[in-house]
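Appendix B, Record 12. Input sequence as logged:
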Amino acid sequence: MDTFVLLEREWRGFAAHVQHEKARTAIDVGCGKGDLSGALALHGRLRTIGYDWSEAAVAVARASLSHPLLSFETHDFGLPVRPTGIQPGAVDVLCCRFVLQYLDLPAFIANTRCLLRPGTGTVYVVTQVREEMAKHARGGEGLPRAVIAELRDAWPTAPVWPLTRRGEVVALALGGARRADS
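Logged structural output:
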């Protein structure tokens, strides 16, 4: 699949399901070279902090992208510790693109809920669907459908949309107030 088509489809879904007029701040968890972080700052006009556990990735992102609304920091979201410098309840959009499968999901969700702005904060997840990846001989990467369903069930609003024709890659927008049983 052409990368540009994927990014265009992804951005349209992001604009429709995640970004809202009151959104001001974003975190990009596992930002790598910072492509999504840069798009959030430049096109989304969000004050964005891109985080990655790799100091080398953060150095590349800092060297290649510059914008007044954009910064990069080293932090390992695989640990049950929130990043310093971010106040609880201050994040409008928390992005987790192709990294959720590597994190301790319960700890990550607990930290995420603390960071999100109450009532309006949204978690944007892009992941491969493990069963679809295996079906199309691309390995067993990504999250299983059951885990994706559990994530969606834990949030009042949780639209999901495919980013590839066969559904190997999907996006989710998890938002709204926390459910009492979550």
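Helices lie at 3-17, 35-42, 55-64, 105-115, 130-135, 145-153.
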